[in-house]
Amino acid sequence: TPAVALDGVTRRYGDTTALKGVSLSVREGEFFTLVGPSGCGKTTTLRLLAGFETPTHGTVRFDGESVAGVPPEARDVGVVFQNYALFPHMSVGENVAYGLRFTDPPGGVSRDERVSTLLELVDLAGAEERDPDTLSGGQQQRVAMARALAPGPDLLLLDEPMSALDAKLRERLRVQVREIQRELGITTVYVTHDQEEALAVSDRVAVVRDGHIEQVGTPREIYREP
Ligand code: ADP
Ligand code: ADP
Questions:
Q1: Which residues form the ABC transporter domain (predicted)?
Q2: I want to staple 135 with a disulfide (CB 3.0 to 4.6 A). Which of 48, 92, 126, 139 is the partner?
């Protein structure tokens, strides 16, 4: 069973058709990337998976079951958007704990323990009391990831989480993100316009263009074809 799938999904916004009958399936534990130019429908796809949007036609499935009518907070999804800024008036620890506003920490641990474990996971052990403004862009995105992962989601959705960073930091962060993903074994859908990035991190890649999926394959398969 695929962990998540889109089945003939169309999404219209007025006269704009952002997705035109898209079908795709992401396997359990897979790092799956949507790559394509701005405006091709990548963010819309993530928003449909997160439950922030509903399809105009078609079905979104988790483990084969339609999630129509299931609200975002009930989908066990962690989301990091490009501009998912941290709350500046909260400490790093409070920002991560905010990820637990709908649920208790998994495994019966305390909130403080959960926050500390997550900060360790993203290589920011002991940063609870720090002010987000004192962190680098890459560190801030790792805190945003810790916040998204705090409730122990089944699915991680990452929308251009690196785009605000310079090339060197991007490369480091993508390696870290991939390591965290592997360690957790969490199904991940990653969005980028950067083909090199997509090929470097993904198990499989979907090339998106103008609301369609043009091609799906491993980086090796995609790269081989002209
Ligand atoms: P991408 O993430 O690949 O840049 P999007 O999914 O954000 O693309 O957008 C796909 C298309 O749908 C674009 O033409 C965009 O302007 C349009 N679109 C997305 N969201 C909305 C919306 N809420 N209202 C109107 N048009 C939208
Ligand atoms: P991205 O480039 O990362 O896709 P955008 O800045 O284009 O993000 O869009 C940010 C948000 O606005 C998204 O949630 C998208 O769905 C929505 N959006 C995009 N295009 C439009 C539009 N033409 N009208 C209204 N909302 C839009």
A1: 4-226
A2: 139
Is it the case that residue 11 has pLDDT exceeding 50? yes
The phi, psi pair for 47, rounded to 5°, reads -65, -35
Instruction: Give the integer Cα–Cα distance in Å for 103 and 174.
Output: 28
Cβ-count burial of 136 within 10 angstroms (0-12 exposed, 13-18 middle, 19+ buried)? exposed
Q: Exposed, middle or buried: residue 135 (CB in 10 Å: 0-12, 13-18, 19+)?
A: middle
- Side chain identity at 13, as an amino acid letter? Y
pTM of the predicted model, to two decimals? 0.87
**C-alpha 29 to ligand 1 mean position (Å):** 28
Q: Which ligand places an atom closest to the C-alpha of 18?
A: 1
Assigned token pair, 135: 């962190």
d(CA 85, CA 77): 18
pLDDT given for residue 174 in this prediction = 86
Mean pLDDT of 67-86: 88
- Indicate whether 94 pLDDT > 60: yes
- Ligand 1 neighbours by CB, cut-off 6 Å: 13, 16, 18, 36, 38-44
Task: Tell me the C-alpha to C-alpha distance, in Å, between residue 157 and each of 164, 165, 177, 198.
Answer: 17, 18, 12, 14
Closest ligand 2 atom to 42 CA: 4
ipTM over 0.90: no
Q: How far is the CA of 132 from the centre of ligand 2 (A)?
A: 26
Q: What is the model's pLDDT at position 129?
A: 97
